[in-house]
Amino acid sequence: MYNQKRLFPLLLAVCLCGVFAFAGCKKKEDLTMKMNEPHNIRGVANFGRTFGDRNDRQLAVAQAIGIPPIASREAAEKLTDRLVLIDDNEHYSVDSLTHSIPYLIPGAAALLDTIGQNFLDSLACKGLNPNKIIVTSVLRTQGDVKRLRRRNTNASANSTHAYGTTFDISWKRFEKVEDPDGRPLQDVRADTLKLVLAEVLRDLKKADRCYVKYEIRQACFHITTRVQ
Ligand SMILES: [Zn+2]
Question: Which residues form the signal peptide (predicted)?
């Protein structure tokens, strides 16, 4: 009969053998480049016509469901019961903001999350490697609007960005999502990503979730939530 002192090293040896055997069976990692296999990408016929919700239309809903315009960043930080902080997450990425601060009313924050998630889902359905949308502008304080107007005479004094209902998403830049297992992923062209994003936004617009304006000069979609 074995006593316990002799049994322990034996058990340890058996366990270690098991671990090594299991590790040996593990499938070899696939490090070949994952190519895109695009299909069913339709986009929209005309960006200007599909996304033509003008400022007065967006402003009416922004003023009805948004916050009153605020003077400063400090004022936004005090409105914690009405504003949600927007930060990089698994569905979208926030650009370094120069003329706005990352706060939205809850309905707009939820819309942004839905757009990012639907975009990733659509890419997967259409055989394209994952990319995140990039948010380029969010809530503008009165100070931001003044500074913007000094730089750009076209910047509207009555901007929907003052109400926490509105954000901009780039149609020119996207953030590639890297494979967690280190498999290289083929790039997706920005103009292809733009078509997929347009389909996502068209569907949400059709469902009365938002108004969307296609901005050529700023290379973004200017989006206002219709849900508080
Ligand atoms: Zn905008």
Answer: 1-23
- CA of residue 46 to ligand 1 center, whole Å: 19
- Does the residue 11 lie in any domain? no
- CA torsion angle for 70, 74, 76, 81 (degrees, to 10)? -130
95 domain residue, yes or no:
yes
Residue 65 domain boundaries: 46-225
Gap between the Cα atoms of 63 and 80, Å rounded: 19
pTM of the model: 0.86
pLDDT of residue 194 exceeding 80, the answer is yes
Centre of ligand 1 from the C-alpha of residue 22, in Å: 55
The larger pLDDT score, comparing residue 8 to residue 29, is at 29
Per-residue model confidence as pLDDT tens digits over 140-173: 999 898 888 887 766 667 899 999 999 999 999 9
- Residue 92's alpha-carbon distances to 87, 131, 138, in angstroms, are 8, 9, 13
CA–centroid distance, residue 128 to ligand 1 (Å): 28
Task: State the average pLDDT over residues 68-74.
Answer: 93
Sign of the C-alpha dihedral computed for residues 83, 85, 89 and 92 taken in this order: positive
The number of folded domains in the chain is: 1
Output the domain CATH number for residue 128: 3.30.1380
